[in-house]
Amino acid sequence: MNPLLQQFLAEGRDQLQQMSESLLALERGEQSSEHINELFRLMHTLKGASSLFTFPEMTSVLHIAEDLLTAIRERPAALGRDLTDLLLECLDFTSLLLDEINQHDQPLAHGEQSGQLCQRLQQQLQSWNTKVGQNAPLQTQEQTAQPVPTQQPATTATSRATKQAAEHSDQSSLADHRILQSIPEALRQQILIESLHEPELNYIVYRPQAQCYFSGEDPFFLARQTPSCIWGTASGSSQDLANLDPYDCQLVFHVLSRASDIELQQHFQYVVEQIDVAPIDARQLIFLSSQADDQPLSQETLDGLHSLYVSRNVSGLRQRLIDILGQIKTQTTTASALRWLQCAANHAPDSPVMEQTWQLLTRHSQYQPTQPGTIQHNDVNDEMMQRGMQEVLATQRHILELDHNTPWAKGRLKAAANSLANIMDATGQSEQKHHLRQLLDESLQDFNTRSMISWIDNLLDHPVAADQEQTAATRRAPITSQQAQQPSSPSTVSSPAPIAQGSGRQRTNPPAQPTTPAQAQVAASRSEHNVAAEHSGRARMADNNEPELTPRSDNSPRYLKVDQEKIDRLMGLIGEMIVARNRLPFLAARIERMEGGRGDPVLRELSRDIKEQHSLINRIAEEMQDTIMQIRMMPFSSISMRFPRLVRDISNRLGKQVRLEMEGEETEADKNIIEILAEPLIHIVRNSLDHGLETPEQRLRAGKPAEGQLLIRASQEVDRVLIEVNDDGLGMDPDVLREKAVEKGLIDSATAVRLSRQECLNLILLPGFSTADTVTDLSGRGVGMDAVRRAIDKVNGGITISSVPGKGTRIQIRLPMSIAATRVMMIETDGQLMGIPMDQVQETVRIPQSAIHQVRQQQTTVLREQILPLVALNDLLQLPISTRLNEDNEYAVLVIRNGSEPLGLLVDNFRGSTEVIQKPLGGLLAGVTAYTGAALIGDGSVVMILNLRALL
Amino acid sequence: MKRVLIIDDASTIRLYKRCILEKHGYLVEEAVNGMEGLEKALESHFDLYIVDINMPKLDGYGFLQRIRAEDIDQPPAMMVSTESAAQDKEIAYQSGANLYLVKPAKPAELLTFVRLLMGDHHS
């Protein structure tokens, strides 16, 4: 992928994340101006970057969203949930497009979705403006007609507001232009497009009798039921408020329909004398949405469009329109004209509609094509330099005329002089520089820039006559203020030079413009390539000046994107190397065991060398392993960042107030672990929100604050990662859980009685256990906590549940930081070596036989004043051999973590710990649950790794 | 080699400009906001500043006003922004910009003005 695009994706994702954080902060009511500014800035930046590429849907959504944010920023008020939802939806949509770009280099088409989104944003923008009451809404006051197809009933209020419009419509022709104007532009365009295939279009005016309500008629219903109705509106028919009879029907309905005259007559058969039907040409709907202020297009832009239009380069035109529309405000008349042209170019490039929409634009812009001149290259050429020079000179002239009452005026003056000097160098007039320096020195003394301005005027070409009036007008203000200071040099005022400060139309003095259509087309298509450049076209790059978008190696990004498989492979290799390394001490020992090994100095030295090499390789291997593990480490934040949004959405849906706190987001763990954690955590959080936390009313009744607390915390515990989810909700009652489990037949009642409180809580981890009485769409979709446990078991993690009824629930998940290499404790039992993962081993102790007591059926001992239940490993493995004692009559006891309770495991002997790479059991052995896998150890033998969880 | 300081909070835009400029033999330094731009501009000499408007901490106008108030050898500054409104342009000139371009500026356009403002002939 092109590096620029890659950068855009990475940056875009960051910005989306930050925006969603700002939005959520705003919703929480945190310092709104700061967040709204941040939000606006990010949206603006993202939109700006997106316009470097051609992602029209993204740019247009972001564009309107930015407009909306501008409106919000200018007239701040509380952001409602609707608005937040909508903006979040925009972010989601953009994020979706980014994902698609990542996969396909181009976003897929989402015409309907993006159109709808834009439309809703537009609506919000309008209603925001209306709500704050400054900008008038889009529709003019006298036409606030309600479209019939929406859900709103035509109330008396509506009819009153629109009666004026009705007055006009009653008197004028059937399809009144003012009524048509209330059809939204997008709908008019849609009707136009559809009319290309389906020309039948009728305009119906329906004036119900004033007494119709008394005869049981429902005119509104009848109008809404018009067959093949496309659009409709209701307006009032009476103007005289004082004599208005509220029991009379005052409504007039206007409906557009695709139904034929006959169908319509049939539909309105009982009121046929109250309707008028007339066919209407869809082209009558082509007109501009009139707006207050406008943003005219530059002559250059219009010339570009013109050449595309006359050359019938439809695809080029479409592209160009997307570009331009991405850059101008959506509510302007110019934008409306461009959209009509776009509509025609997209759907009817060969019909008269195209001509009509083009004229709409040219008439609105008062455009006259520039006469074709010389060729414009995309390269920098003399002509561009010449034109650029004029512009820069004029700009500096303007700068020199500015008010000098600022602390930075001196610097600004110097910078303008430096710019002028550089222009002289660039255009081969370096001899002028000396004179310029003198003028600058003079000017710096008293801020009298007259001499410099006259000097620029000498350099500037004679301005085109048409420009004079305009430029003189724009310049008048700054000049008058300066004349007050020093009334010299009237000549400057009377001989105005072009100033490049307005729109591009003001700099029409350059001699040439692009343009035969064909040339313009070439230029346009080349520049497109250029912007979305792939660096594949090296041949093309070689012969022109387009930039090659390959960053130089010394400045290339510091991040490397690597296929995860490669790192997995590296991890596998280092694992194998560790096993090979472990073989070295065995080799050394073998040499020593050889005949005369200890006595032979050569062999002894060899053995020592091997041991030395072993420790060296050991150090390197460990460092390597650490480094590779580091590569795979990901911060907890990579999954936790979705929680604020998740919690917000769910709690809103449930009508609960929840404050989410997160801690330890920087805690790192292996990528696989973090990824495996994602789903279970979401499930746990959902459970907390759905079943744990109560509604505000319930909470208040229970004497808790209305806002529930949810704390998600990650921390590191030696070699494990601990993730905690705490809520201060209902908690779980062990007795209820016990009953449920019996009820569902998961355990029998005899077992149930024996269960401790902790064991009762653990019941929720059983498959098929669900405490919720109702299944909601949030949690309880059939994946219960058993799925959570399975996922955690898979990576050798543990889950602990604690809960106090009425106070809340805490769920702790402990996970190894890495799953690649496991440290195991080697133990011996029944003459066999076995491994137990170190993270389950708390300590090793030796306990005299005399210290072991039989309590009921359980062997126990007392370890540091705590009762420690004991289990013999041989019993667990169903080996009919009792555990061996050592010479001092002591048992080797491995204290392991079993849930939260410690347990002593009696084994024959300990053999120290070692690092192994576990391989899962395959084939026939796959079903054996007593072992999690097998591993190769240093001497080449295979040891089984015990799965204590399955055994206990 | 002449040095350009690009001040923009959007990394994509910075990369875009960097590529264009480096292709044509300029040395490019980047700053992610006006504050960082100020630090870099005061630390060493540049031949041109290319400045964005909307940035966190210190925006483009603020950067220009503050750098123009310093006693340094004032290099030209080019302001590039998506805003095409006339008043933005005027504030830019008031603040000490020497040229105002509407982005996304085409490579050839950008290059033309970069060369003019830095005194390089194109051939």
TrEMBL record, chain A:
Residue ranges annotated for the CheW-like domain, each copy included: 821-952
Feature: compositional bias, Basic and acidic residues: 165-175, 526-543
GO biological process: chemotaxis
Annotated SUPFAM superfamilies: ATPase domain of HSP90 chaperone/DNA topoisomerase II/histidine kinase, CheW-like, Histidine-containing phosphotransfer domain, HPT domain, Homodimeric domain of signal transducing histidine kinase
Catalytic reaction annotation: ATP + protein L-histidine = ADP + protein N-phospho-L-histidine
Enzyme Commission number(s) of this protein: 2.7.13.3
Enzyme class: transferase
Modified residues (Phosphohistidine): 44
Keywords assigned by UniProt, alphabetized: Kinase, Phosphoprotein, Transferase, Two-component regulatory system
Record-level GO cellular component terms: cytoplasm
Region listing for Disordered, in residue ranges: 140-175, 467-558
Domain Histidine kinase positions: 577-819
Gene Ontology MF terms in the entry: phosphorelay sensor kinase activity
Signal peptide residues on this chain, from the entry's feature table: none
Compositional bias annotation for Low complexity: 140-158, 477-524
UniProt domain HPt: residue ranges: 1-101
UniProt function note: Involved in the transmission of sensory signals from the chemoreceptors to the flagellar motors. CheA is autophosphorylated; it can transfer its phosphate group to either CheB or CheY.
Protein name per the record: Chemotaxis protein CheA
Lineage of origin: Bacteria, Pseudomonadati, Pseudomonadota, Gammaproteobacteria, Oceanospirillales
TrEMBL record, chain B:
Positions where 4-aspartylphosphate occurs in the chain: 52
SUPFAM superfamilies assigned to the protein according to its UniProt record, in alphabetical order: CheY-like
A GO biological-process term: phosphorelay signal transduction system
InterPro entries in the record: Bact_response_regulator, CheY-like_superfamily, Sig_transdc_resp-reg_receiver
Coiled-coil regions listed: none
Residue ranges annotated for the Response regulatory domain, each copy included: 3-118
Keywords: Phosphoprotein
Pfam families in the cross-refs: Response_reg (PF00072)
Superkingdom, natural source: Bacteria
Annotated protein name in UniProt: Response regulator
Taxonomic source organism: Parathalassolituus penaei
